[in-house]
Design brief:
The chain has 234 residues and is an alpha/beta fold. The protein folds into two domains: 132 residues, 3-Layer(aba) Sandwich (Pathogenesis-related Protein p14a); 35 residues. 47% of the residues lie in helices and 17% in strands. α7 runs antiparallel to α8. It starts with a helix and ends with a strand.
Length: 234
């Protein structure tokens, strides 16, 4: 009997592992209509100030639409900072193996938004305006927009890189911390089988909902910063 239960638990854990990751395979790259040139005039805004503005407008968008605010996470911030420096250095946007890397750091649900705006004149933008512009850029695409409103995400890390030539690079890493596999192990080790199965099925449903949040659902309308409800088309 123990062997059969052990095999069943192993199968359940394999299923849990398969549900751990939100793999958001989208990216956005926007080129400003201004030709790429050296930014002149005002000194570049502070990257930390732009980072704070991105967080503020991301959370404002969530709040307007009835979702809990995201909390900044030190580990995700460090990850996003390294990622944005890498993106700016290589000169293009790429998600790479972000989902697997974040799962290794115990962010069992995770997603990522990437953006680059080129050809900016620093005389035209404050840190607050840049942060808002980046978030508004994400609002134009369903994958990025739904990442920002996914209720299963609890934490966020933000990376910002500005260049003297008028480029702003941004990375948003979303996540929820935890180790569901370890939790399932504990349930089957300490609880009666039926109770452990009940908890497992509830967790499985939660993980599936988190993973499929922006994949198999109608494109909803959202309230944007103008206070109006916008209906989006695919």
């Amino acid at each position: 009997m123990k062997t059969r239960i052990g095999l069943l638990v192993g199968l359940l854990l394999a299923l849990v592992v398969g549900l751990l990751v939100i793999d958001i395979d989208t990216q956005a790259q926007s080129k400003n209509t201004i030709p790429q040139q050296a930014a002149v005039g005002r000194t570049m805004p502070s990257e930390k100030a732009v980072q704070r503005a991105v967080l503020r407008y991301t959370n404002k968008f969530r709040q307007l639409n009835g979702y809990k605010l995201l909390k900044q996470n030190t580990q995700l911030n460090q990850f996003a900072k390294h990622k944005v420096q890498q993106q700016a250095q290589q000169g293009y946007l790429s998600h790479g193996n972000v989902s697997a890397e974040l799962v290794q750091r115990n962010f069992y649900l995770n997603g990522e938004n990437l953006a680059c705006i080129r050809g900016l004149d620093w005389r035209d933008y404050t840190a607050d305006q840049l942060g808002k512009k980046l978030v508004e850029l994400y609002l134009k695409d369903v994958g990025h927009r739904e990442n920002m409103t996914n209720p299963h995400f609890k934490l966020i890390g933000i990376g910002v890189q500005l260049t003297a030539s008028g480029q702003v690079w941004n990375v948003q890493n979303f996540g929820t911390k935890g180790n569901p596999q370890k939790q399932v192990d504990k349930w089957f080790d300490t609880l009666p089988y039926k109770k452990a199965m009940k908890k497992y099925r509830k967790l499985q449903k939660k993980l599936r909902e988190g993973r499929n949040w922006n994949k198999k659902r109608p494109i909803p309308s959202r309230i944007e910063f103008d206070g109006k409800r916008h209906t989006y088309q695919r």
